[in-house]
Write a structure and sequence with these properties.
5 helices, 18 strands, eight-stranded antiparallel β-sheet, 3 domains, alpha+beta, 360 residues, 22% helix
Length: 360
Amino acid sequence: MSEARPKTMFKALAGALIAAALVVTPLVTVSASAKDSAPVSLEGQTGVMKPWTQETNHVEYWERVYPGATCVKGESSLGKVTVSETGKSVTLDAPPAGQQWTALIIKAGNVWNDVVDSPKTGVAYASPVNNGGQQAVVSHWIACAGPATTVVQPPKPEPVSTDKVVTTFACGADRTITTTTTTADWVWDAASLKWVLGAPVSGEPVITHQPLTPTEVESCTSETPPPTVTVTYGKWTDAKWACGDTTVTQTRVVTTTTTPSEGAPTTTAKTETRTRDLTQEEVGACALVPGEVPVVDPKGTPTSSAIPTPAAAPAATGDLATTGGTGVSPIVVVSGAAALAAGIAIVAIAGYRRRRAGTE
C-alpha cells in the first residue's frame, strides 16, 4: 500500500470527527439557551406546554387528538375569540348552544404550543415562550368545540340573607318591631357550569309587638319620647381557607342606629363571628396541580400562588413520531453518533501510526 492512501484515510476520519463536533455544539447551545431563560411570569393562565411541530399548525391534527370535536384556526365561527392588546393571551367567549369548548391551542414562537383542555370562557390563556425564554406574541390559535355533555349540578348553596330590624315605641301601647329580610338566591350559570349569586330581593316586612319594659314605660312619662332603634345585620362572609381545612370562620357586621326625637342619630357597629363546616363541593374543589399552594378565597374558588412554568425547551422541534416513538431527544442521538465517529477516528489514527512505525 502506498503511503498516500493512509494519509488520505487519516484526513477523512479527522474531518468526520470535526464535523460531528460542529453538529453537536450548536444543538446543545440552543437547548441550554431555551432551558435557562424561562420567564418569571406569563400573561394569562397556562395549560400544558407541548412541543410545536409543523403538523400541529393544522386543525386536522387536533381533531384527531380530540375525536368528535370541530376545530377552527384563526376565526370565530365557533364563538368569539379575543386576543389581548399585547398579543400574549387569548380569551374565549361562550361556545354555541349545545356545545362546549374542548380545547384551546395557542401557538407563538417555534418551540411550544400552549394546549388547554376544557378551557373556560372569560379566562385569559397565555401564549407560550419563544426559543429565548420570553413570552411570545400569538401567531395563531386553534379552538375546538364538541357536543356538550350532561353536567351534574352540585348542591345548590343556601341563599344569602340580610335582615333589617327597626324598633319603635308607642307610649301607652307596646314596642313595634319591623323586620325586613333581603335575600339573594343562587342561579345556575350554564356557561361557567357553576352557581352564581343572583340579584337581592326584599321580602314583605314582618311586624311583631312586645310589651314595653319598665324602663321604657318610665321614659314615656318624660317630655322626651323614646328613640327609634334600627339594627341591620350584614351577611355572613367566609374568611380564606386552605385545602385540607374542614371548617371556615364567618363574620358579619351588625350596625345599630339610634335616632332620638331630637338631635342627630348615632350609629355603632360590631362584628359577630361563627364557624361553619365546609361543604363537600368546597372540599372537592381542591384537586389542584401538585406543587401548588392552594388558597381559597371567600367565594370558595381555589386559586394558587404558584405560577406555572413551562418545561425545558426541546433542542429541536418534533414529537414522538420524529424520534421513533421512544421520546429520545435528538441531541442524545446526534451525540452518540458523534462519539462513535470520534472513537472510530481515534482507533484508525492509532492503527495508522503503528503501521507506519513498522515500515520505518
